[in-house]
Amino acid sequence: MSAPEPPLDIRRVSANAISVNVATAGDGPAVLLLHGWPHTWEVWRPVLPALATTHRVIAPDLRGLGASDKPEEGYDLHTLADDVAALLDALGVERAAVVGIDLGAPIAFMTAARHRDRVERLVVMESLIGRLPGAERFLANGPPWWFGFHAVPGLPETVLAGNVGAYIDWFLRAGTYERAGVPKPLRDAFVASYEDPRTLHCGFQHYRAMTANAALVAEAVAQGPLRLPVLALGGNVVGDALYRQLLAVAPNLRGAILERCGHIIPADAPDALLAELRPFLGESPAF
Fold first, then answer.
1. Tens of pLDDT along 163-219?
2. Quick one: which H or E segment has residue 168?
3. What backbone phi and psi angles, to 5 degrees, belong to 259?
4. In a domain, 71, yes or no
């Protein structure tokens, strides 16, 4: 008989002048999980119970998304990294491993760069970090089409009105191996969240900040390498582009490509993800 899952606590906490919706479970060394778009913290549900058997798992909704506050401003990476540090403060956590996927990966990276004493080790997956060199092959035909669409002020909000579910379904199919899609409870949670016009708008605010955020990444890299342990994971969408970006930035870098896995790694290949995360997170502390 398997051990019972650690209880899950979902609550709101004040951090960096906003109210953050956060799910927590387990005890032990802290690991903070940052989701992407069009997700909420629930993208981590397939791996959260297993991680919580050995760690204190913290999975917030990002600024503007899920059930967290939805301010008009604050989608620059400095503010988003400060959101993470303030959330750790609010939860009484001194240091944590930080894991980010998609939209959450640059935030995780900036948290490690901006709050170097707070992040013990870093995991990033299926994303690009600003315009760091190394992603030329991935970007050979230009960036993904939706980057430009989402960045146009007001346009996607207007075009997608009444069609949010169908639009998100396309991403969930395109982001999974053989276009299988995610489990229905996850799909329904994501769609219900983004059908809120304010959440949809704030999601696009993250995209509209990307140009400015690329400059912030360049500034952060100029301050010196990230010497903490870093793990870069890829599925069959971004692949090894993120690993190649970090080669010159993170001297203690390792990477892996997960087989038979699409973009939404926690939902698409939870067992393979856990097989990479558990030994990496279980190593002796970096400090």
1. 999 999 999 999 999 999 999 999 999 999 999 999 999 999 999 999 999 999 999
2. helix 164-174
3. -75, 150
4. yes
